[in-house]
Amino acid sequence: MHIDLTGKTALVTGSTQGIGAAIAAGLARAGARVGINGRGEGSVAKVVERMDGDLVAAPGDVSKDDGCERVLSVLPQVDILVNNLGIFGAQPALEIGDDEWRRYFEVNVLAAVRLTRAYLPGMMERGWGRIQYIASDSAVVIPVEMIHYGMTKTALLAVSRGLAKEAAGSGVTVNSVIAGPTHTGGVEDFVYQLVGRELPWDEAQRAFMLRHRPQSLLQRLIEPEEIANMVVYLSSPLASATTGAAVRVDGGYVDSIIP
Length: 259
Prior knowledge:
One of its GO terms (biological process) is monocarboxylic acid metabolic process. The protein has helices at about 20-30, 40-50, 65-75, 100-125, 145-165, 185-195, 200-210, 225-235; strands spanning about 10, 35, 55, 80-85, 130-135, 170-180, 245-250. By secondary structure, the chain is an alpha/beta fold.
């Protein structure tokens, strides 16, 4: 299967590290011109410098109106939008205050809606486009230790399905990707937060999966490149009949045969 995105321009939000960086690298390898996004100019510049491909620095906090406008000034038009930006963290449910609920919704949901609202009309006019929302198994299996995070990922599934209907018949596909527990720097910190920092990483990972994610059929954390492979496919012409879907790259974590 050959994926060629030559001539396409992509924006991946939150792409200076982790899953976002892996997605950006995958799209660039497929030939796309890729906008690297993060809040700080320095972190974005470092990724652009070290990563191979046709890359564009697009710094800006897209959870804020001014940050979004900053990104749009650099990339006023894209063919592929990957809404990857997200925050997470463990917190007892009844200790989550109103401001924290709002912060999670602003960053994890409204940032994606804001960019979709900016880019989708142009895609529809041109008759081609790909929009994706990086969701999570937590959208379906709400983790008790981070209900506020799970809520935002559930919202992304609804946003994705609804906007796919808005784009119906236009040649633009809109999908969400349900990512399972993935090995990133942030997740390493999260794992150690839950199982303790006295264990070596391999043992800590096994303990985390056994105690907190026992449903996983992989029985290991997913590597970011494994998420990126699905995103690159969904960004391509080969995925032209996949829209309005919640596509799973979850290692079998969600105990369901649909989808």
